[in-house]
Each structure stands twice: as structure tokens, then as C-alpha cells.
Amino acid sequence: MVVPGLIDILIDSNFLKLINIKTYSIISIFFFSCWTFSQTTKIKQLESQRLLIKKEIENINSLLFNNSKTTKIAYNDLENISIRILKNQELIRLTNQQINILTNEIDKKNDSIDFLKSEIKQVRKQYSLMIMNSYKSKLKESRLMFLLSSDDFLQALKRTRYINQFSEDRKRVADKISNSINLLDQKITMLNSLKSDKKNLLKQNKENQINLKSEEKSKERLISGLRRKEKAYKKQINDKQKISINLDKEIDRLIKEAIRKSNNESNNNIFKLTPEARALSEKFSANKGNLPWPVVRGVVIRKFGLQPHPVVRTTKIQSNGLVIATTKDAEIRAVFNGFVLSILKFKGSNITVLIQHGSYITAYKNIDEVYVEKGEKVSALQKIGKVFDPKDGSKSTLQFSIFNNTKAIDPYIWIVK
């Protein structure tokens, strides 16, 4: 005969153990899932950046290393190799970051798998105990006796609930074992996928490092051959920088002049906009990160701001925009609706076109042939001119800038990636 109250204790004990296991499991899996989601997102972001750099390297190879022409300027070859080296270094850095994250995630996945295996073993053990205790107490055969031995109706009701709860617990534990096994299989599949990704990245990184060493040797050979002319080259860089600074000053003067006219000649550094111009300005601002490139094909070879020269690292150069290498005779496109504020031909430089978009100005420098006129309305992607093609075999480039009133801002965060 079953002793009254014995099954109450048995069921309560097993139930509490299972609740503790289940709660610990849910909390642990939740934290593992959150960590995995965060790391997966980061890996995807790095992979997106890595693919972008690979595409830029492809463009560099195509646009700067065209075997069909022979460059007459050795320094141009050196600049091109230096640009490619910088991109390869960036590619290796991003790949290493991915590898490190994958390594950490593989370790976490291994820990998670070990935890699940341990949990499945523990739950199976508890399940076995429940079945064994149920058999020993002869719960099924003694159910009626157990209920009839109750002191009152409330105790009988409580015992009925416990019996039902015991059956439900057995089903839940069985389901939990099945779910945990499925989850374990998923994690093992993910682990194998991560290991495969890491193996591929390690292989690519090895190839990238071999290419980088080869390019660095080529660069050293060029440098040793040009070392005697380094002073002349520095002077050439400084002369170009002076022309660029003077051109930027003239652009600044033209923008300030346009601002004064919008403010009826009063001293102000902000455009006074008509309702139509204000709406255009707001639309331009809303398209940050989605503006089209000013050329169909191109690669950024100089970023915005103060930076070391790609060859003479001790020489600093200031850039108010992006320098984009593009194809020979590439046609230049307006990046947004607006009107031509000015067409500037400055001494020592090629033509510059300024287009106004409300309080924003886009500048397109190094144009050979212009298709538009001052005051003309232009639409996004409209061709406004053709890039200058140097006859010495050096690269064709467009210098692209964006101004908010008189302030130069980084175009790279405005154009679509």
C-alpha cells in the first residue's frame, strides 16, 4: 500500500529538479543566442566591408594597371602600387578581424554544445528516476487507493492534481530531451559551417599576404630606382597641393558670394533659401549614404581630410573631397537635382563645376569638356562633362567634394557603397 503523502513528496522533489534544469537551460540558451546574434551581425558587417575592399582592388587593377598603355611617369606607377598595397593591408586587417570573431564563436559554440550534451544527459537521468520511482511506488495501480486514503475532499483534489502534474512532467521532460537533441544537431551544423568559413578565410588571407609581400618588393625596387629624384617629387607634390589649396579658396569665395546674394549682400555664412530651395536641401540631406557616384566606374584613391601621401609618407596632403580614379574619357554625372552655380577655370588646373542643391554644393574638379552652362537646371545622373585624360599615361581622376554652405564635408559617407 502506498503511504499517504509519499507521492506528494516524490512529485514535488522531481518537479522542482526539472524546473531548475529547465530554467537554467532557458537562461543559458538565451544568453548564447544573444551573443551569437551579435557576433553573426558583426561577421556579416565585416564580410560586407571585405567584399567592398575586394571590389575596390579589382577596380584598382583595372583602372590603374592597364597593360595596354605604358606610363611615362615612374612615380605614377609607384603611387598606384602604394594605393593597392594600402587596400590589400585593409583587406588583410578585415579578414583577420573576421577570423578572430569566428575563432571566438567556434569556442562559444563548443562550450554551448558541451553544455547541451551535459544537460541532455542530466535530464535523461532525471527522466529515468521519474520512471523508476513511478514504477516502485506503483503509481498507476495505487492511484485509486492513494485518492481514497485522502483525509478530505481538498486533499483528494490536491492529490489528483499532483498525479496529473506528474504525467505532464513526464511528457515535458520527454519533449525537452527531443528538443535539446534537435538544438544540439543545429549547433553542430552551425559549428561545422563556422569551421569551414574560418578555413576559407585563412586560405584567402594567406594568398593576400603573399600578394602583399610581392607588391611591397615591387614598391621597394621602384623606390630605390627613384630615390635620387625624391626631392623633385616632393616639390611636385607640394606644387600640386598649392594649386589645390588655391582652387579650394576660390570655391570658398564663390560659395560665400552666392550666400551674400541670397541674403541681399548682408554678411552671413548660411544660404537664405526659398521654400523650393529648402525642400530641395531637405531631400538632398535625406539621401545621405544613397547618392549615386559621380562616375559610372571608379575607385577612391584619396580620402577626405588631412592624410600622408601614399608614397612620400612624411608629406601630408589636405583633401576637401575624394579623388576618384576612373576610366579614360569617363563622363561625369550630377549626383542630385540642382542648378549650376558656377563653372570655374582656375590657373594651373582643369575646369571645375559647382552645382547647388539648396544649402548644399557639389563640386566636380578636373573636367576637360563641360556639357552644361551656369544657371542651368540639372537632374540627378545628368551628364555634366567629361573627365580630363592626361596624355602622359597617368591615371584619369575626378575630384569630388560636397559643401554644406561653406563647410566641406566627407563625400564618402554620402555616396552609396
Order of helices and strands: HHHHHHEEEEEEEEEEEE
Unreliable spans are 1-19, 67-72
Residue share in helix: 55-70%
| Rg (C-alpha, Å) | 35 Å
Q: What is the strand tally?
A: 12
- Mean pLDDT level: 80
- Write down the oligomeric state: single chain
Alpha carbon gap, first and last residue:
78 Å
Derived structural class: alpha+beta
Q: Tell me, what's the shape?
A: elongated
Our count of helices gives 6
Sheet of most strands:
10 strands, antiparallel
Fraction of residues in β-strands:
15-25%
Domains (count): 2
Question: Helices, strands, pairings?
Answer:
Blueprint: H1 6-64, H2 74-136, H3 139-148, H4 153-226, H5 230-262, H6 275-286, E1 298-302, E2 305-308, E3 316-319, E4 322-326, E5 331-333, E6 338-345, E7 351-357, E8 360-370, E9 377-378, E10 383-387, E11 396-404, E12 407-409
Antiparallel strand pairs: 1-4, 2-3, 4-11, 5-10, 6-7, 6-9, 7-8, 8-10, 8-11, 11-12
